[in-house]
Write a structure and sequence with these properties.
Layout: E1 5-6, H1 16-24, H2 44-61, E2 68-73, H3 77-88, E3 94-99, H4 102-111, E4 116-122, E5 143-148, E6 151-152, E7 157-158, E8 170-173, E9 190-194, E10 205-210, H5 227-232, H6 242-257, H7 260-280, E11 299-302, H8 307-319, E12 322-323, E13 334-337, H9 344-361
Parallel strand pairs: 1-12, 3-4, 3-5, 5-8, 8-9
Antiparallel strand pairs: 2-10, 6-7, 9-10, 11-13
Helix pairs in contact: 2-6, 3-4, 7-9
Bound molecules: pyridoxal-5'-phosphate.
């Protein structure tokens, strides 16, 4: 068997050590003679050996303060685009959104069903190639919350600062950069993330919600869209994504063994630098149009001089074992997603391939 390097944006590559452990215990987990996939979510085994350890590991990794609940939700990060307004609007009718790319736009579109959406920071004028400075943020007087997307997975931009919102809760869609570096959770009202990029298999969404924001959902809120349902029932109101939670827990443990998020941050920066340095030194053969102040460390997007070369690049890279480098159809080009589980060796292999490809075609 030959494992290839998977640069797909998500579901994304997972740590090999975790995959091997899962393989080893797939049929007979912890000597119980059954698979985790077959284990009831209300058993003490699930609670004591899977759910609770996963919660504790995440809490420790992110230094999550005691006044936050970690919720395991099944409906994908996109469902948070509705859950956030449903739970946070209360008696208000407006919310502020930082509009920096395709994912923040999707969040805004959904929120518009429930409230007036104000754009507090707008990157549309620069074609989402730069995140305007914090001095350009204009918050409305009566917003229920401020929502932003710290890493725009499709556009390839990333905030390297945390918006200061004063007293209004700050909500972050960290789907594509959670656990990639340390963040001060206390600056946020809600952090949410789909698991399939930086955490584990698809099917699980994690929401980290400050206690005072739970229990105030609009009356029309469906039970499964109410944070209180998950908080009151330890995420076991209905069947959670048990296998994804199990694997997320193993990934958290693996992260700790690697030195935690601080160590990950250093490696991630090094990986991203290798790619950006090569792109910038390629005299325009490879080009990345994102402002240097806000380039993503997770999703490196770039273009080649023309479409033919791009097609050839995709074909030859795949043949070389470097998979899923095609950019999102909305922006085209190439995208290398290099989350925590993408090894430095994988990035080095891509860099070498890019150098060779340039030599052969430049
Ligand atoms: C992938 C992604 C989503 C969508 O996640 P789903 O789990 O597919 O709903 C939302 N936001 C960001 C920033 C993403 O990268």
């Amino acid at each position: 068997m030959q494992r290839k390097y998977n640069f797909g944006a998500g579901p994304a590559t997972l740590p090999q050590a975790v995959m091997e452990q899962v393989q080893n215990e797939l049929l007979d987990w912890q000597g119980k003679g059954i698979s985790v996939m077959e284990l009831g979510h209300r058993t003490s085994e699930f609670n004591e050996l899977i759910l609770t350890p996963a919660l504790n590991e995440l809490k420790a990794l992110m230094s999550i303060p005691d006044n936050y609940k970690i919720l395991f939700i099944t409906s994908g990060a996109s469902a948070q685009f509705s859950m956030v307004p449903l739970n946070l609007l209360q008696n208000k009718t407006q919310a502020d959104y930082l509009y920096t790319g395709i994912w923040s736009h999707k969040a805004m579109a959904e929120a518009k069903r429930y409230c007036q959406v104000n754009i507090a920071l707008n990157a549309e004028a620069n074609g989402f190639t730069a995140i305007p400075p914090s001095s350009e943020m204009t918050f409305s007087a009566d917003a229920a919350y401020v929502h932003y997307t710290p890493n725009e997975t499709i556009n390839g931009s990333e905030f390297h600062w945390i918006p200061e919102t004063n007293k209004v809760p700050l909500v972050a869609d960290m789907s594509s950069n959670i656990l990639s570096r340390s963040v001060d959770v206390s600056r946020y009202g809600i952090i949410y993330a789909g698991a399939q990029k930086n955490i584990g298999p698809a099917g699980l969404t994690i929401a980290i919600v400050r206690d005072d924001l739970i229990g105030k959902a609009l009356p029309v809120t469906p039970t499964l869209y109410n944070y209180k349902t998950y908080a009151d029932n330890n995420s076991l109101y209905n069947t959670p994504a048990t296998f994804s939670i199990y694997m997320a827990g193993l990934v958290f443990k693996w992260l700790r063994s690697q030195g935690g998020v601080a160590a990950m941050a250093e490696i991630n920066q090094r990986k991203a630098n290798k790619l950006y340095q090569l792109i910038d030194a390629s005299a325009g053969f490879y080009s990345n149009n994102i402002d240097k102040s806000c380039r993503s460390r997770m999703n490196v997007v770039f273009k080649l001089p023309n479409d033919n070369l791009q097609q050839l690049f995709l074909k030859e890279s795949a043949a070389a074992g470097l998979l899923y480098l095609k950019g999102h159809k909305a922006v085209g080009g190439i995208r290398a997603s290099i989350y925590n589980a993408m090894t430095e060796k994988g990035v080095d292999a891509l860099v070498e391939f890019m150098k060779d490809f340039m030599k052969g075609n430049g």
